[in-house]
Input
Amino acid sequence: MQKIKIVIMGAAGRDFHNFNVYFRNNDAYEVVAFTATQIPGIEERGYPPELAGANYPKGIPIYPEDELPKLIKEHDVDQVVFAYSDVSHEYVMHKASIVLANDVDFRLMGPKTTMVKAKVPLVSVCAVRTGSGKSQTSRQVAKILRKKGL
Output
């Protein structure tokens, strides 16, 4: 069976999450690249092999988002997964148009395939944009919960 080749568009958040919960050990897919635009210099790094799993012994490269049409052609991509969580409808549809114009499927993943199933109560820290302090808030919440023995 030939694997479905994927590029995941994101900003080092939901894109990595979607990869971890759905694509990492899924033999039906091959994630050939991530693209990013919101974090300066991220395209100079890659998703490390230690996190990518056995199917990706060299890790997964991260490219600037403006290289998406070139990546689609070079890797004979079948689908582009859009995994930003803090952009406008207009932005999403503009990116969808670029992907569709390059003759591949544009995909949004929903809760059924990306939600982490918890066996214990959990606390979610959310925000409307990148850089609004989720990490710092999460650390403080964790500290409080540990003090309470939770």
